[in-house]
Amino acid sequence: MRTANVRTIVIWTLVALVGATGWAVLALARGEDVSAAWMVAAALGSYAIGYRFYAKFIAHRVLKVDGTRATPAERLNNGIDFHPTDRRVLLGHHFAAIAGAGPLVGPVLAAQMGYLPGTIWIIAGVVFAGAVQDMVVLFFSTRRDGRSLGQMAREEIGPFGGAAALIAAFAIMIILLGVLALVIVNALAASPWGTFSIAMTIPIALLMGFYLRVLRPGRVAEVSLIGVGLLLLALVAGRWVAESSWAGTFTLAPSTLVVWLVAYGFIASILPVWMLLAPRDYLSTFMKIGTIALLALGVVIALPTLKMDAVTDFASRGDGPVFAGSLFPFVFITIACGALSGFHSLISSGTTPKMIQKETQVRMIGYGSMLMESSVAIMALVAASIIDPGLYFAMNAPAGVIGTTVDNASQVVTGWGYSISPADLAQAAKNVEESSLLSRTGGAPTLAVGVSEIFSKVTGGGLRAFWYHFAIMFEALFILTALDAGTRVGRFMLQDMLGNVYRPFKNISWKPGLVLTSAIVCALWGYFLWVGVHEPLGGINQLFPVFGISNQLLAAVALAVCTTLLVKSGRLKWAWITGVPLAWDATVTLTASFQKVFSSDPKVGFFKQRSVFQDAIDDGKVLPPAKSMDDMHTVVTNSTVDGVLTAVLALLIVVVIADALRVCVRHVRRPALSTLSEAPYVESKILAPAGLIPTREEKEEARDAVTAARS
Q: Which DSSP state fits 323?
């Protein structure tokens, strides 16, 4: 026992030293080359310490997870929405569902401020806020029959604050789904390789689902090998298809992709979770984690240098070409999903609590999955920071700022202090077999260039174009898995809301209800997507500026609900665990909301932008990015909608937080008045490990159970 303790102390001391050294180099190095490997070291060391100590403390000391208590998946198992799912498959589903566009795109855009602010927020934010939110929401939803976040708010905070939370959560969900879908359309449009490979994941997932359910129940290792093999074949075959006569069949226009995405979202939302959703997300996780792990390994082998400044001048001036606004609060809003994401709380109170086998697994699935997503964000930031800063700004600045030629772009970017020649810009595009890389905004192409830079240093420059297009396809697959799970969660939320009016909707597996609500959710985000694709300056594009803010506002709702439940369930002394992140998130997000609504800078303030463009319309002028008077009117409409929507969402969140505070104060003063909607205790009959690898005690318990069953 003594030897084991000494070994454990030595191992964790080394882990801490690796992480601390990484942080020291990143923080103190000025004016010299810094390897990206130190960023990876700081991240992995911090993640390991956070999971081993802080997450374990919260799960066992604060939440007091109970392995003997039956979960909703066991008690309410109906094979449609409630279904006990192997922890490894569920980990894959949960990670795939939460990991959408945010951790890929946000950190790339935030690199405008330098690599250091983003690194600090991504790592500190996930350890103390994002992963905590995901785990605690998952725990409390599991204790409440898998209730959605909005419904938990209504039952635990009250009808007034709860109604505000329900409306805000559902509206934000539609915004998030619309933005995710548009990113997928932009990535797959006219890309036969990506379209074919991603389409093939659907029949592969169906095969895996039936394999585990019917052919070979419980054989997770077998089905994993089959699924990964078929996935790799689909990836390779995608390139064959793109170079064959079939290319035209899989070269789809944006409008066609919209129809297919809406149809897929509807079908994935109503089919039993074991048939398509869980196995498909589990399958895509292999590609996601595999790619990120290979990226980390590539960084360690190639040791690329961080070329972006630790902190750029744009951080203090707030006039960056990628996005306007100062470091505080906008770097935190831009990164969002890699550190703290309200969207995750919808998954943690949506599909996952209806599938989890044991309460003891909330640490691995809730906290662990979020750490995995944060690692994606770190690798995205690395990819953006190792390419030439001149190329980074040329790719991410809009055409209205840098022009459409390499000569003009070179001149403008050089004026910002990041010189790059026209020849270098042209060569960068040629290296990845693209006609141009100018103004490839949105973050995804920049990440792909960084990925190709890292991988080509390991495999050779001849494969640079292959790795670039692989990364583009990887990002589309990454995001699509969040879309299908998000649609299903949107269905749960709408059913909860309608269930307050018409009781049969409370049964989320009631077939007429699930079909109707799935259709409504798909129609809502599908409408905005369709308009956005056909009207480039309108539709879903007007929701892009409020994407980050709405996501963080939703996190404030989740943290407010968690804090209220900690207080009401007798854990007042531990309320700081979610209360402190709530205070920080509310401060940052409401500050950002205020600035976006009332700032006098037209690049920041929605209403000021509206005023400037309206004045120009009155004078008969056309301002960029508009190209016609119709575009000018569209910008005015978009700015008005953005401003009103941001103000309304911020007001709803203030109502939720204020009502939650009222409930907490009332409970402290008069605990007898509080009630909890927790489901009654039922003893569990399922034996399953808490972590990915069973402990010695768990193996012995499983052997004893088998022996008892035989006797």
A: S
CA atoms of 117 and 124, how far apart (whole Å): 11
Q: Within 13 Å of residue 481, how many CA atoms lie on the same side as its CB?
A: 30
Contacts by 609-615 with C-beta closer than 8 Å and gap 24+? 609/635, 609/639, 610/635, 610/636, 610/639, 610/640, 610/643, 613/639
Minimal CA–CA distance to 350: which of 220, 521, 185, 221?
Answer: 521
| Cis omega (within 30 of 0) for bond into 625 | yes
Determine contact, residues 189/252, Cβ cutoff 8 Å: yes
Residue 455 and residue 304 in contact, taking contact as beta carbons nearer than 8 Å: no
Q: How far apart are CA 201 and CA 101, in angstroms?
A: 19
Centroid of chain to Cα 35: 27
Going from the C-alpha of 425 to that of each of 104, 454, 517, 672, the distances in angstroms are 23, 18, 49, 69
- Phi then psi for residue 35, to 5 deg, are -75, 140
DSSP letter at 580 equals H
3-state secondary structure of 29: coil
Quick one: which of 653, 502, 684 has its CA closest to 149?
653
Which DSSP letter does residue 570 get?
A: T
Q: What is the pLDDT of residues 50-62, one digit of tens each?
A: 999 999 999 999 9
Q: In the 8-state DSSP scheme, what is residue 361?
A: G
The whole-angstrom separation of Cα 471 and Cα 410 is 26
Structure tokens at 154: 């209504």
Residue reference for tokens 């379209």: 195
Give CA 336 to chain center in angstroms. Answer: 8
Burial degree of 662 (CB within 10 A; 0-12, 13-18, 19+): middle
Angle ∠(182,481,173) on CA atoms, nearest 5: 60
User: How many other C-beta atoms can be found within 10 angstroms of the C-beta atom of residue 499?
Assistant: 17
Backbone angles phi, psi at 473, to 5 degrees: -70, -40
The three-class DSSP label of residue 508 is: coil
Identify the bridge partners of residue 305 per DSSP, sorted by sequence position: 35
pLDDT band at 1 (very low <50, low <70, confident <90, very high): very low
| 3-class secondary structure, 69 | strand
CA atoms of 74 and 84, how far apart (whole Å): 6
- What are 483's two structure tokens? 């879309």
Q: What residues contact residue 663 under an 8 Å CB cut-off, 6+ apart?
A: 156, 157, 158, 161, 564, 567, 568, 674
Q: What is the pLDDT of residues 339-381, one digit of tens each?
A: 999 999 999 998 899 999 999 999 999 999 999 999 999 999 9
d(CA 613, CA 606): 11
Q: What φ, ψ does residue 567 adopt, rounded to 5°?
A: -65, -50
Q: What is the pLDDT of residues 138-178, one digit of tens each?
A: 999 999 999 989 889 989 998 888 888 888 888 888 988 88
> What's the token pair of residue 660?
């939650």
Residue 559 Cα distances to 344, 354, 562, 595, angstroms: 12, 21, 5, 23
Task: Give tens-digit pLDDT for 579-630.
Answer: 999 999 999 999 999 999 999 999 899 999 999 999 999 999 998 777 789 8
